[in-house]
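SAMPLE LOG
Freezer: B-3
Tube label: C17
Construct: single chain, 101 aa
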Amino acid sequence: MVKIRLTRIGRRKIPVYRIVVIDSKKARDGKYIENVGHYDPRTKEVKIDRDRIEYWISKGAQPTVRVAKIIAKDSNKEIEKEKELEPDKEEGKGGSDEGTN
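STRUCTURE (predicted):
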């Protein structure tokens, strides 16, 4: 079975993780199929290749619980960013009495 999970890089007491596609029988830091992102738990920085993750999930890869949480948080951040970029639809509509004298 193929999994999407974290593999540790970084040195002692400074963890940094790659998000990788790997056979479930391989060791945590073993040879992986594809690197699809990285995660720094100290700064909460996440970089994910969404297209490749969706591709592997469609092929039957199972994300681990932690990776699923990281993906969900990252998608929530993207939705919030899109909302910030959208102009307010309420602005500019009638309802104010300015200029009606």
